[in-house]
Amino acid sequence: MKKNLFFFSCLLIGVLATLNMQSQSLKNLEDNNGFKKYKLGSKFVLGLGVKHRDEEGADKIVIDYAKETIGDIPVKAVELYYLKDTLAKIIVQVSPEYYEKLIDACKSSFGQPTKDISNNEKGKFDSSSYENYYKDNYVWKAPRLRMEYFYLYPKMGSGAYGTRTLNLTYILNDYGQRLQRVQRGINSSKNF
């Protein structure tokens, strides 16, 4: 009986320690509140670039001149999405050859992902399938925001013609609701 009690108490302590480490990692994500100096919820600052309306209705700024890095991984571009002049989404474009380094860096900084929505069943290739790409997609979700790792790569070795994409997305959890409010405001009754 004492051995069982000891075993269960050790198991409980292990589970609690794991949960605490995961919550600390997600707290770090919440504390970062975005990427480098670009913080979610901050207001638009003149001088970042010219805003262009994207197809969803958000104002988008592409910063491809910044010399940012994630550790020793160079960043190609940073896309900022503003809804009513409030930064609501950040997409950090990274060169695809750094996919392993980037996922390892994410896991070491923020722990294991809270959700895996990948489509990468490498053993099951169906030649009749219309989708010719695999995707590795992992989500770290904190109470106010989430970070998504997205890597898209071809199923078959397609040489130089295969499109590969790698990015990190920082997004407010209520982005969809904010976007709907912006879209409703475009055709409001005040316009008539």
The coarse silhouette is globular
Strand content: 25-35%
Largest sheet: 9 strands, antiparallel
The helicity comes to 25-40%
- Give the end-to-end Cα distance, rounded to a whole number of Å: 78 Å
- Radius of gyration of CA atoms, rounded to a whole number: 21 Å
Mean pLDDT: 81
Account of the 3D structure:
With 192 residues, the protein is an alpha+beta fold. Helix content is 29%, strand content 32%. The chain contains three helices and eleven strands, in the order αβββββββαββββα. The strands form two sheets. Strands 3, 4, 5, 6, 7, 8, 9, 10 and 11 form a nine-stranded antiparallel β-sheet that branches. Strands 1-2 form a two-stranded antiparallel ribbon. The radius of gyration is 21 Å and the shape is globular.
Summed up:
It is built from three helices and eleven strands. It is of the alpha+beta class.
Salient structural properties:
192 residues, alpha+beta, 9-stranded antiparallel β-sheet, two-stranded antiparallel sheet, 11 strands, globular
